[in-house]
Amino acid sequence: MISEPELEGGTGFDTIEVLTEVRPPRAPRARRPWLWALGGAVLASAVWGGGLYAYERRQERGPDLRGYGPVGAELCEKAEFKALSGILGKPGGAGDGPLLEEPALLMSSCNMAFGSAETGYQLSLRYTLHKVTDPGPEFAAHAKYYDLNTPIEGIGDQAFFDDRSGEGGEMRVLDGQAEIELTLYRQYGTDADADGNMIEETKPLDLSGIEVPMTQDVLALMEALKK
């Protein structure tokens, strides 16, 4: 007869295995890089799309014209030239140039004489408003091409001047999308005496520092063009 282990002095079971319903913890799941990449791509696409929409909206509205608008044939009337008149005398004999008004560009010009139309000083003025393209990157290059190498501070975004060897002065100003060109030059008139010798009738003026009144008149014109 086989006896039970405990009855025969056997050691029996040293441990008791307990079965439970608790499962051992799982190892952490590895992150899926493609999900992060997908999320980043979606975010980048949304940002790019928003930037594109904002850019297209800006394109629809066009550039900021800073209040500059159209002007008819009264350009020289708007300018007035009060500062230059104090040096050159009362202006007169104004003449208007051709007017160009297109969706992308506005150009207006005029001429004015100080003193005699034949022997005084002549002034030409041009106003250009770029409604679509930005003239800024090319403005300094154009000024250099016309030998305007002296920068003028305190007027517009950029301004350049040359005194034309003391015979007058030329100034170009850029303010946002608007360009203003002001040129002053001496008129020469001659006549013959009884012996047939040519006599110069023009009386030259000392125009040193002429850029100051020119700047004052251009600043006044810029304000007038915004009204």
Structural account:
The protein is α+β, with helices and mostly antiparallel strands and 227 residues long. It has two domains: 32-61; 75-225. It is built from five helices and ten strands, in the order H-H-H-E-E-E-E-H-E-E-E-E-E-E-H. The chain is elongated, with a radius of gyration of 41 Å.
Topology:
Layout: H1 33-61, H2 75-79, H3 82-88, E1 91-96, E2 100-101, E3 105-114, E4 121-130, H4 136-145, E5 150-151, E6 158-162, E7 168-175, E8 178-186, E9 190-192, E10 198-200, H5 211-225
Antiparallel strand pairs: 1-3, 2-3, 3-4, 4-8, 5-6, 6-7, 7-8, 9-10
Low-confidence stretches: 1-16
Number of domains: 2
Helix content: 25-40%
- How does the helix and strand content classify structurally? alpha+beta
Could you tell me the mean pLDDT? Answer: 79
Shape: elongated
* Radius of gyration from the alpha-carbon trace, in angstroms: 41 Å
Number of beta-strand segments: 10
Helix and strand pattern: HHHEEEEHEEEEEEH
Q: What is the beta-strand fraction?
A: 25-35%
Summed up, the helix count is 5
Main pleated sheet? 8 strands, antiparallel
The N- and C-terminal alpha carbons lie at a distance of 125 Å
